[in-house]
Amino acid sequence: MSKQVLSIKFKKKNGKLVIDNLLSKEQYRLFIAQVKDNDSVNAIFEIKRVENTKLYLAKIHVCIKELADEMGDTPANVKKQVKKECGMSYTKDGKEEYDSFAECSKEELGNVIETIIQMGNFLGMNLTGYLDQD
């Protein structure tokens, strides 16, 4: 078997690790279908605790809307631009994909906030009041 790699996110619910979304469930199913009897599968688990980032996320989305209004663009396009600037975009199967802000740590969201402030400054907007990092 050639080297196959699968990376998916689980959440603990009722004492069990469960796959978090339908796409990951399908990727897992396809991966398991390739495993033959007596094949070894290595697994690495990393705990990523949910941090109190909801306030940061709300501020980020408000500022993305403000930037979009100023630029005459859609919030979705500006969000993609911010993610590209922060290194949160990648190519998968020839298609550009983006990491979710919701999956970011507080430190990573701090980088997103700095990027948004810089973009606002470039446009002559002062977004620091929206994005004070408490």
Can you describe this structure in just a few lines?
With 134 residues, this protein is of the alpha+beta class.
What does this structure look like?
It is a single chain. Helix content is 44%, strand content 12%. The chain has 2 domains: 1-47, no CATH class; 54-122, no CATH class. The mean pLDDT is 85. Helix 2 crosses helix 3 and helix 2 packs parallel to helix 4. The termini are far apart. A hairpin with a 2-residue loop joins strand 1 and strand 2. With 134 residues, the chain is an alpha+beta fold. The chain has helices at 22-34, 54-71, 75-85, 106-122, and strands spanning 10-13, 16-19, 89-92, 95-98.
- Kindly report how far apart the N and C termini lie: 50 Å
Which secondary-structure class do the elements indicate?
alpha+beta
- Strand coverage percent: 5-15%
Helix content: 40-55%
Please report the total strand number as a whole number.
Answer: 4
The total tally of domains equals 2
C-alpha-based Rg, rounded: 19 Å
Order of helices and strands: EEHHHEEH
Largest sheet: 2 strands, antiparallel
**Poorly predicted parts:** none
Shape: elongated
- The number of distinct helices, counting runs of at least 4 residues, comes to 4
Mean pLDDT: 85
Order of adjacent strands in the largest pleated sheet: 1-2
Features:
single chain, 134 residues, alpha+beta, 2 domains, two-stranded antiparallel ribbon, 4 helices, 4 strands, 44% helix, elongated
SSE layout and pairings?
Elements: E1 10-13, E2 16-19, H1 22-34, H2 54-71, H3 75-85, E3 89-92, E4 95-98, H4 106-122
Antiparallel strand pairs: 1-2, 3-4
